[in-house]
């Protein structure tokens, strides 16, 4: 029996002039699958299959949403549910009030209403986030620097007939795409394809334009319009993950509430991307790793998503030369600032001098006007042409009390434009960390130490080849073996301390000291092995949790299967217990100088006993956690620190639940295992006191070992709160340092991660320290010499 989905798929295939065989080949699915879906024999199409079909058909966003809606709202019998029989798809709490279809008249599907409501909430979060970023970057102080653009060379733009979506045989004229910052949305809306490439050299204002585009687009956004979301595309590996999946993953990272299950079995982030409710603003194509730009451009061309893409011209042109232009995309290029722009802007950024109308920028502007061919004038003319360099010059020579702009004319120290740029980049950090009496929340950091720590962060990002400073990956610039050893060391010392302290309640201090060392060594070794195989060997990071723990009340639907978690926990407990019991048996036998056969027999017996104990405890304890998990609130506006704190609270609650449950199960489970085993293995030295001791130590130690090795908050603690400060690469108060650097304008926030203010600053700091230059002597006279 055919259904709405079957009929719609058949119609769309015929409109695309494709046979079933051609569609199957293009989508990468079997012909029998296509035939079964169109005849209704296959009544439960997977969402992944529907996505492949939608891509192969090249559907517009509204057609894609309709195809997905008709697919996911079907019952196992293949019928579309009516008002009396709603689809039993889990709906997140934030969307539970979405209207349901009724039996009378056409209605918008529940999928449409749910995602429309979620998109509105994302739009509010995005708008608030980027308004704060504009304020933080002082974009409007005193006014935004001009950002203008012009059309690019024809070889970097697709055919105008493709851009204008015209039928074959048309001979369209080019669109008028010139404009400036406050007109970017109007220019974008002139492009029927909805695809625009913005090119500009380093520091020319591409990111500022992307932010302004997002905010202006959101101001005029209707309820059904897509939400512009800025993605730093430099972290995308197109050979490892598709564009749509990467966009969904980035949404879940920056908005963890979107990981909640949505209608149709997908999560909300995937639903938003698949139905065209996200307008990707892909910032930084040039920051994609070398060798990946060609496959990235090919992957972008394989989609029909409307988008805005920014890049430096050379990197984009090189990718185009290797493959093709961005399909159906118009392209513009940002232009340099003019002398009139500088003359209007720079004097307004410095304080007035008493009794004088001129400002300290007059000598600089005079050199640019009257002596443009001089060495100083030529250097300045080459440097002060981008918003980045002008804002750095303002920070160093206008905002600093002793910053005399005339120092920029000193050709003895700034003989080339590159040396002048290095001066601005060097002194920006020094100026940002200058002492500020009465500066409120800003802490007093030594500028040299701050430069050293920022340099490590920049080198860390360069090693990972990403602009995103993720707190959960701060230790991942080290080798995998080093990370594993550090994790094992921290866990071993922690378990030794727990065992030594708790064990003194039951045994002598001398015995417990030895027992703690043995327990710490064994657990550190075993957790280190587990960490290697589960995390380090895959060269993957432990991602932040997208759930919170709610002990009482509320929705608890995360899509996770408690039975599956129980089986995983039991298996891990069995492996860990067998290894722990066997090694402990070997050590005990060696200490007692027992013959080798007795040592092996005792070790195997201990391995079996401990394996059963931990399997029977770890499985139920881990499965129990699933019952208390609930999705994060979609409305929560996250930044790096709030995400860290949310994960810290989640881990703390998990430990409060898991530790006593696991301890009790180990303690009483040991009694249930040992006494029956004694009938097979012979007499076993075990009693209630030993069971209580094992339960307490296992509950505390096991919970801490799990937290440090397999949670993002634990990895943050191991590396960012212990190892990196201990080795001098970061300060002890890392959170305070990162937030302070953000308030000083050295770092910026992009959703749940930090980034350096600009990629140029990141790469400059990664090169190592340079001697900053004073801009004036203590008496106020100009100076260009190095600090003594």
User: Could you say which overall geometry the principal axes of the C-alpha atoms support?
Assistant: flat
Number of strands: 11
What is the helix content?
Answer: 40-55%
Judged by helices, strands and strand pairing, the structural class is mainly alpha
Distance between the termini: 86 Å
Approximate strand percentage: 5-15%
What are the low-pLDDT stretches, counting only 5+ consecutive residues below 50?
73-107, 771-788
Task: Give the mean pLDDT.
Answer: 81
List the topology elements.
Blueprint: H1 4-15, H2 20-27, H3 31-39, H4 47-57, H5 61-72, H6 110-136, E1 148-151, H7 160-163, E2 179-180, H8 184-189, E3 195-199, H9 206-219, E4 227-232, H10 243-254, H11 268-274, E5 278-283, H12 293-301, E6 307-311, H13 313-322, E7 330-334, H14 339-345, H15 362-370, H16 375-383, H17 387-399, H18 417-432, H19 447-464, H20 480-503, H21 509-534, E8 547-549, H22 562-591, H23 596-627, E9 629-631, H24 640-681, H25 688-710, H26 712-726, H27 734-743, E10 747-750, E11 753-756, H28 759-766
Parallel strand pairs: 3-6, 3-7, 4-5, 5-6
Antiparallel strand pairs: 1-2, 1-7, 8-9, 10-11
Helix pairs in contact: 2-3, 2-4, 4-5, 6-9, 10-11, 15-16, 16-18, 17-18, 19-28, 20-21, 20-25, 20-26, 21-22, 21-25, 22-23, 23-24, 24-25, 25-26
Describe this structure in words.
With 788 residues, the protein is mainly α. 54% of the residues lie in helices and 6% in strands. It has 28 helices and eleven strands. Helix 23 crosses helix 24. The longest helix is centred in the last third of the chain and has 42 residues. It is flat and about 100 Å long. The termini are far apart.
């Amino acid at each position: 029996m055919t259904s709405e989905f079957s009929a719609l798929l058949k119609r769309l295939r015929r409109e695309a002039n494709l046979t079933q065989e051609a569609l199957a080949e293009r989508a990468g699915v079997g012909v029998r699958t296509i035939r079964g879906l169109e005849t209704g024999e296959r009544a439960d199409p997977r969402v992944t299959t529907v996505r492949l079909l939608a891509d192969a058909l090249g559907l517009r966003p509204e057609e894609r949403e309709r195809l997905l809606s008709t697919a996911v709202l079907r019952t196992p019998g293949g019928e579309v549910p009516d008002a009396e029989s709603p689809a039993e798809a889990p709906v997140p709490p934030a969307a539970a009030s979405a209207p349901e279809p009724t039996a009378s008249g056409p209605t918008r599907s529940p999928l449409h209403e749910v995602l429309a409501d979620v998109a509105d909430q994302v739009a509010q979060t995005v708008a608030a986030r980027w308004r704060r970023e504009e304020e933080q970057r002082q974009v409007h102080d005193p006014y935004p620097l001009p950002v203008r653009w012009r059309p690019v060379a024809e070889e970097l733009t697709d055919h105008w007939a493709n851009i204008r979506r015209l039928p074959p045989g048309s001979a369209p004229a080019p669109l008028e795409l010139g404009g400036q910052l406050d007109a970017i949305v109007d220019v974008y809306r002139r492009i029927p394809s909805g695809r625009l490439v913005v090119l500009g050299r380093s520091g020319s204002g591409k990111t500022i334009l992307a932010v302004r585009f997002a905010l202006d687009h959101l101001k005029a956004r209707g309820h059904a319009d897509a939400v512009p979301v800025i993605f730093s595309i430099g972290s995308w590996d197109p050979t490892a993950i598709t564009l749509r999946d990467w966009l969904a993953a980035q949404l879940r990272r920056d908005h963890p509430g979107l990981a909640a299950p949505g209608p149709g079995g997908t999560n909300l982030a995937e639903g938003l991307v698949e139905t065209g409710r996200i307008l990707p603003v892909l910032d930084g194509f040039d920051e994609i790793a070398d060798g990946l730009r060609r496959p990235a451009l090919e992957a972008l061309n394989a989609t029909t998503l409307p988008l805005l893409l920014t890049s430096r011209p050379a990197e984009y042109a090189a990718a185009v030369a290797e493959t093709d232009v961005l399909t159906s995309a118009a392209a513009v290029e940002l232009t340099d600032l003019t002398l009139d722009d500088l003359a209007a802007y720079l004097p307004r950024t410095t304080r007035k001098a008493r009794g004088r109308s001129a400002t300290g920028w007059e000598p600089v502007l005079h050199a640019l006007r009257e002596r443009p061919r001089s060495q100083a004038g030529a250097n300045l003319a080459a440097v002060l042409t981008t918003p980045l360099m002008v804002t750095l010059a303002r920070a160093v020579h206008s905002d600093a009390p002793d910053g005399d702009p005339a120092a920029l004319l000193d050709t003895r120290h700034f003989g080339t434009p590159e040396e002048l740029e290095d001066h601005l980049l060097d002194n920006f950090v020094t100026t940002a960390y200058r002492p500020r009496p009465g500066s409120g929340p800003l802490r007093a950091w030594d500028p040299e130490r701050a430069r050293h720590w920022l340099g490590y962060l920049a080198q860390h990002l360069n090693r990972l080849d990403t602009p995103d400073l993720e707190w959960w990956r701060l230790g991942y610039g080290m080798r995998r073996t080093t990370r594993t050893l550090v994790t094992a060391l921290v866990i071993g010392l922690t378990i030794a301390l727990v065992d030594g302290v708790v064990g003194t309640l039951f045994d002598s201090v001398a015995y417990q000291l030895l027992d703690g060392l043995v327990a710490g060594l064994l657990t550190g070794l075993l957790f280190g092995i587990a960490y290697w195989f589960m995390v380090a060997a895959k060269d993957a990071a432990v991602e932040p949790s997208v759930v919170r723990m709610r002990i009482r009340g509320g929705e608890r639907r995360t899509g996770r299967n408690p039975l599956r978690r129980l089986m995983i926990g039991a298996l891990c407990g069995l492996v860990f217990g067998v290894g722990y019991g066997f090694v402990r048996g070997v050590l005990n036998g060696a200490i007692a100088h027992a013959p080798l056969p007795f040592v092996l027999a005792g070790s195997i017996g201990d391995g079996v006993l401990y394996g059963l104990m931990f399997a029977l405890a770890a499985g139920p304890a881990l499965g129990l956690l699933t019952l208390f998990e609930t999705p994060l609130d979609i409305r929560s506006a996250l930044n790096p620190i709030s995400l860290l704190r949310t994960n810290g609270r989640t881990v703390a609650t998990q430990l409060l639940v898991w530790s006593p449950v696991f301890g009790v199960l180990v303690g009483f489970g040991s009694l249930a295992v040992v006494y029956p085993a004694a009938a097979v293995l012979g007499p076993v030295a075990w009693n209630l006191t030993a069971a209580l001791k094992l339960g307490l130590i296992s509950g505390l130690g096991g919970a801490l070992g799990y937290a440090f090795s397999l949670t993002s908050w634990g990895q943050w603690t191991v590396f960012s709160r212990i190892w990196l400060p201990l080795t001098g690469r970061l300060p002890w108060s890392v959170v305070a340092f990162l937030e302070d650097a953000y308030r000083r304008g050295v770092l910026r926030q992009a959703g749940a991660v930090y980034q350096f203010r600009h990629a140029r600053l990141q790469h400059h700091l990664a090169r190592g320290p340079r001697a900053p230059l004073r801009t004036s002597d203590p008496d106020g006279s100009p100076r260009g010499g190095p600090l003594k």
